[in-house]
Amino acid sequence: MSEKITINPITRLEGHGKIEIFLDDQGEVKDAFWQVVELRGFERFCIGRPAEEMTRIVPNICGVCPSAHHMAATKALDALYGVEPTPTARLIRQLEYNAFYIEDHYIHFFFLAAPDFVVGPDADPSERNILGVIGKVGKEVGLKVIEVRKRNREIIKLIFGKAPHPEGGLPGGVPRGITSEERKWIKETADYSVEFAQFALQLFKDVVLRNKKYLDMVLSEAYQLKTYYMALVDEDKKVNFYDGKVRVIDPDGNEYALFDPRDYIEFIGEWVEPWTYIKLTYLRKIGWKGLVEGDGTSLYRVAPLARLNVAEGMATPIAQKEYEEMFDTLGGKPVHNTLAMHWARLICALQAAEHNQLIASDPLLTSKDIRNMDLKLRNVGVGCVEAPRGTLFHHYETDDRGILTKVNLVVATQHNAAPICLSVKKAAQGLIKGPKVKEGLLNRVEMAFRAYDPCLSCATHSLPGQMPLTLTIRDKSGAIIRTLKRP
Amino acid sequence: MKVLVLGMGNPILSDDGVGLFVTRALEGRIKGVDVVTCTLSGLSLLDVIVGYDKVFLADALILEGRSIGELRKLQDGEGTLHLFSSHGTDFFQLLQFGRELGLRMPEVGGVYGIEIGDHLSFSEELSLEMKEKTKSIIDRIVEDIKSNLILNGTFQSSLNMNTEP
After folding, report:
1. What are phi and psi of A481, to 5 degrees?
2. What is the pLDDT of residue A241?
3. What is the dihedral of CA A464, A466, A471, A473, to 10 degrees?
4. What is the pLDDT of residues A430-466, one digit of tens each?
5. Regarding beta strands A280-283 and A404-410, do their DSSP bridges make them parallel or antiparallel, or are they unpaired?
């Protein structure tokens, strides 16, 4: 008879999720699933509203990535109204978006990831948190984290009114420009952020890479998953958070696809499984192959590691050096080690800070040409950004009055949902031997999940009344071995 | 003493945002306190609360066997929907984190949980059932905050100031 272990709730993550691990008669892990149990119904709520309302509404989808949704919505409005933002507006948007990246990535690293590495994966859960981290590395580090976050939030507030829930994204532009006085402190913030980024990377190297036990864990089979990868790249195929084409590489690192975000439906399929509310995504042209990795899979991953795997380099010089060091250390591209996501995240934060240094020095930044008003309603608009957790698509359609008739969001956690299940299963299979499982081992299983930094709140935008009511577990032959009723 | 009344919740998830609605209605009803609403949780709350001496919170709550609109003042260690659904840290850990770093963090004067039931849906309106109860909820929270501040001496000066000619 199989035995079930439940980790619920998944600590240190927004929203509510549940991991279930099934053991066989021998106590070996037979299967593992990540369930999301949160109700959403966002698209239906939006239909019938003027499209311009989306930039006000979408930051409320969740408390984790409001700026990403806000920017994707703003870009979807650009496309919907057939308008290109002015060069200055584009710079200001990127300035804000980089500031958001910096804030977001450090919250994840110091509050979610660092407890596992700095305090230790097997430490008492009451100590495995940010308080434990500053207990180990000192209050000065905590103060630096607060400072870098505070300074970058000032940029978000300056441009979009309030942080972290920005409002005011406009098709073709931004709501305000930047003055020469503001440029000075923006430059100082960017400089401080680059310095902090290098400090954070050094901390990661000292704590994780120089600890053989941790490095072995990063490199272990339990935390590997061979999938395709997807991310935005610029025209030189370098990492870009704000704009570009979507590039997909196969599990061996070869380019599989390079497409305009507006064509996402041709490449991304959505698959519904009865055991989760999230629509699982896969590469449509390959077809749904189920929860499998390696040759024959149609699953792909997004998020920081995917960005670095997909791109041919970073867009800024210091980040490029770190990128090269990461791939040299981990054995070349692509890297399939899920825990390397933390390293990649810090490199992305460094690029964001370096890019803001460049923006702060750009003469165009203080131009007053911040809005292109040449709007022509085209009834369909797709906006795409690299959210911190991966590629994010907003697809809006309207009638001739600009009233929304269709809204479709494909969020990072959807792209990663099926791989997360596989990562959890592999970690469980590699780590759990027998039914007597200590808390530290369960935490190590959670670490596989946590590396993705999934955003559960915005991932499950299913309509009310369409939620699955049961969880079904099948064996390899497809036979149902267990059905769980939703409470 | 700087006092903050903070309303929390999601403004597009109907009753989930009752803390926002109730707190907005407190504005002007208690002299000498700042009234703020926010849709934040976790570390993001730091900017809102740092520098205050005392904070009162109003937020949605889901408990089994309670009816919609039931008001409950929570005990130490208990939390409402948005105090624990945080990205990286919960509210009480955040207070401790701030104190560890030497920041001026408030003591918690009270956490008011308002039961919303387990059916959430997207809407910018409260449910009819909740709307009927908000006046009573607001009055009781105002009374409780005033009592707390008077009891602790912090509100006395404000009251006296308001009654002097």
Report:
1. -110, -15
2. 98
3. -150
4. 887 766 667 677 778 888 888 888 766 544 432 222 2
5. unpaired
Using one digit for the tens of pLDDT, what is the confidence trace for A146-165? 999 999 999 999 999 866 67
Report ipTM for this prediction. 0.86
- Residue B122 to residue A165, Cβ atoms within 8 A: no
- Residue tagged 């009480």 (tokens): B92
Structure tokens at B154: 């912090």
CB A336 within 8 A of CB A322: no
CA A323 – CA A344 distance, rounded (Å): 8
pTM as predicted: 0.90
B 48-77 residues with CB below 8 A of A? none
Inter-chain residue contact A131 with B97, CB threshold 8 Å:
yes
- Gap between the Cα atoms of A361 and A354, Å rounded: 11
Degrees, nearest 5: CA angle A193-A171-A151: 15
Q: What share of chain B in percent tops pLDDT 90?
A: 59
CA nearest to B57, candidates B70, B68, B72: B72
The CA-CA-CA angle for residues B37, A16, B141, to 5°, reads: 30
Contacts (Cβ under 8 Å, ≥6 apart) of A394: A54, A58, A69, A72, A73, A75, A76, A382, A383, A384, A407, A408, A409
Show the CA angle centred on residue A221, arms to residues A218 and A226, nearest 5°: 100
Q: How far apart are CA B57 and CA A200, in angstroms?
A: 34
- Judged against a pLDDT cut of 70, whether residue B87 lies above it is answered with no
Over residues B153-165, the mean pLDDT reads 40
Mean pLDDT of chain A: 87
- Name the residue among B39, B43, B96 with its Cβ closest to that of A131: B96
A350 pLDDT above the threshold of 60: yes
One-letter identity of residue A46: C
Subunit contact B86:A14, Cβ cutoff 8 A: yes
Between CA A253 and CA A265 the distance in angstroms is 23
> Across residues A30-53, what is the average pLDDT?
80
Spell out a b/e string for A315-325, using b for 16 or more CB atoms within 10 Å of the CB, else e. bbebbbebbee
Residue B128 contacts A, CB cutoff 8 Å = no
For residues A280 and A285, give the distance between their C-alpha atoms in angstroms, rounded to a whole number.
15
Which of A14, A39, A139 shows the shortest C-beta gap to B87? Answer: A14
In this predicted structure, what is the pLDDT of residue A173? 97
Structural domains of chain B, with CATH: 3-150 (3.40.50.1450)
Q: Tell me which residue in B42, B88, B101 faces A139 most closely, judged by beta carbons.
A: B101
Provide CB contacts within 8 A for A290, sequence distance 6+: none
